[in-house]
Design goal:
A: 320 residues; four-stranded antiparallel β-sheet; 19 strands; B: 649 residues; alpha+beta; six-stranded antiparallel β-sheet; 23 helices
Amino acid sequence: MALALKLPDWTRWLRIARAEQAHATLSRRHIYILPTRAGWFFAFVLLLMLIGAINYTLSLGFVLVFLLAGMSVVGMLHTWRNLAYLQATVGRIEPVFAGNDAIFNIVIINDSKRTRYTIWTEFNPAPREASEPVCLDIPANGSATAGLAVVSRHRGWLNAGRIKLHTEFPLGLFHTWGYVDLDCRCLIYPRPAANDLPLPSAPDRDAKGSADTIIGDDDFYGHRSYQPGDSPKRIDWKASAREQGIFTKQFQGTAQSTLWLDWSTTPGSDDEQRISQLTRWVMDADALNQAYGLRLPGREFAPSSGPAHYQQCLQALALM
Amino acid sequence: MRVKEPDIIDLRWLLLGLCLVMALHLHHFAGWVALSIMVLIVWRYLLAHYRRPMPSIFILMPLTVLAGLGILLTYRGLFGRDASVELLALMLTLKLMEAKTRRDFLLLVFGGYFLTVTTFLFTQSMAYGAAMLLATFTLTATLVGISHPNGRLPWHFQAKTAAILLAQGAPIMLALFLLFPRVPGPLWGIPQDANKGMSGLSDTMEPGEISELTLSGEIAFRVQFEGKPPPPSQLYWRGPVLWHYDGRSWTMASPKLQLPTESLQVRGSPSRYTITMEPSNRSSMLLLDMPSLLPENSAVSADLQVLAKSPIRQRIRYQASSHLDYTLAPDAHPRALQLNLQIPDFDNPQSRALAQSWVDTGKSPEDIVQTALTMFREQEFIYTLRPPRLGKEPVDDFLFNTRRGFCEHYAGSFVYLMRAAGVPARVVTGYQGGELNPVGEYLIVRQSDAHAWAEVWLEGKGWVRVDPTGAVSPSRIEYGIETAMPNENPLPLLARNSYPLIKKMYLNLDAIDNAWNHWVLDYNQKRQMEFLSSLAGSKLSWQELAIAMIVAVGAVGMFLSYFIIRENPAKKDELQRIYATFLRKLQRKGIMRQPQEGPLDFGERASQALPSQAAQIHRITDLYTQMRYRNRKTTESTELLKWLIKTFK
């Protein structure tokens, strides 16, 4: 073990095709090739056949052994060619909640006139809870997408890390592979809390601005400080000029109540629990199609609804 | 890594490949082995076809043991040539019964390749060479199929890939075949029965032995004459000379007798020829009566039979010359003459009496010979391949009872009569005649031309050849066995004259076969050195040969590498490069082309995102697609596209 610890990280010397403008090309210098176990066994069988041919002076035996040897050399070149100059790039990567499978869509592009058969894509080194390698045929002048899944554990960015492409086609006697580093990451939303706390009750004036459900468009109601996302039409330029800072006019609505989700009033024994709870509430509110605002230490999202707002809130929670 | 296991398509390829390999062997497999293999293969296919479970280990284990026992009982061992090949074939087929995974399939394909090479222990004819290619091709296609676990490949693509792999491998094969240093002789002992299939003249002669050999259409040797071949009646190919008779079989004189080599006086010009002899697993080399110039590496016995130093187990070529006009041993050693009068005491009383009656009438040895031949000619003797079995006194039984026999009967009984009458005589076995192949102008001598005749020693003339068969059936000597035999006799098809077209085709094929032997099968150490030295212009050592091999294979490999991987798809054409700058400019504005997005879709999306530049984007996209997909590429349009993109901000 002590020896193993002293070894330098050998992976530093790996030749990895890195993304250049989001495309990584497995060019000539990125490709490794070695015989597979079947390839070594085949070589052994050929050796036995050769010895037999020598011993019994079988001319046709020589012909067959040499033909198979030639075939495997050619097969090696074909295997190499099957992987060379493939390009990899990142496809769409949807954010997921922690605990679910993060799916990295790796698009493999084949610019050549030849279909590339049996191209395997996998994480390298493979995380413990990664899906199996994905096997694809990449059509000529086309592309195919490998969805590599890994179980996400923690909120935040999950990096895919190094990705290995490999193939043994057409003979299975040689294994050729290359690494690509695409700098692709998946946003992991926090794990939502169990659904037992109801949404904070609507107007709660005692808790400072915890819920502000009656903001509407109808009647002027007061000022509040400007927040990103407020419509420029609503900025009270006069008041802003008088006082320090920018103020937004607020109007009283009658139709809808607005929900404020506030970090400081969220129950929970630690930050992670609070984040989980807020995540759950954001999901619940979104499911009810209700406008909601999110107030986090140092950040605030004005009440709104819709997918863009939903994603913004969850991203903020994920990256807290 | 999980690999999807081979499906029924892969199984079909594998079974086809294995069937082809087994077909190469069927001609020598024991009946029950061939049958079991066929049944197992059909069984395996039906199981897969009807999606039934594979047989359990409790069925396969006893079957495996039974198969081993069967081989043990059939061949009294597991390690002879036949036994081990059949055992391997059976075990592979039994492995097939439990083959499910990709690993199993790989093992079976490699086993199939190995079993293919064992075919050549039995035959190396051109037809088998072609069949070997077919089997190898099918097995390779199987490999291609199981290397693609991701659904099915079109069968023609699978076949094409396998064919390309083998075809591109052929130059490497050729370089290795020509240059791989050949080692003479076996590296270790060869199983006793390895040469079992070879047929040739025996060192002994028993009634029925030669007629059995005659049933074989196999070629014994081929002869190329320098100049005109002698007439058929002169074509006596001298093999073992048999002196000793034990009442049943004739055997050669023991070398322990140390008799002096008989003297040979020749007249006229010799006949020179080259013989390519098929392996016979015996040492006798066949030469025309009488050999006057011996081939290399041979020795001659006292009775002028030419022997190789060791049994002939590979095809050999030798040059020799013979004189057809000769006198052999007019001064024969008295002891030799004495030995050639030997017959067992008190057997065949009728024959002895007959011979004695000739002596009693005061005939000279020449007269006695003529009397015996006249007897064969004028009495009811029949020349047949199916003589009846002879009783305890075979000569009596033949001469006075059955009177139906083949050449060994006539030669044997004639020599017996001569000896009983006090004329020294011996049996000579060999081949008589041969078939001239006009294609390539050489003589084909088959096992069916095997023959036996007699030599009698006459004062002043020495050993004189007498062929009693000629007295019974003169056409046998003049025109060959096919004319001498009525059609109901079981002669091999190709030894007959009744199918001229087949015969002609056959002769053409045989000429090709002769070339095949010469260039492929006999490419041994000697020929390799000769051939390569003639190319190099000087004598090569084997080290030079090894270097030449490495260089040649390396060169072929480099050429193939260039040929196979020269294409560099990463290099985009000019048009794509220009378009790529456009993509980069848009990317800086935050609009990225998705890999699956075509240029038109992308242009649409970009112009929506940048409404102020929509016109420009449309123009560039249109021009690019026109040039790329409608082949409207000209110097002007290229310049225009360049300019448009350059000015795009």
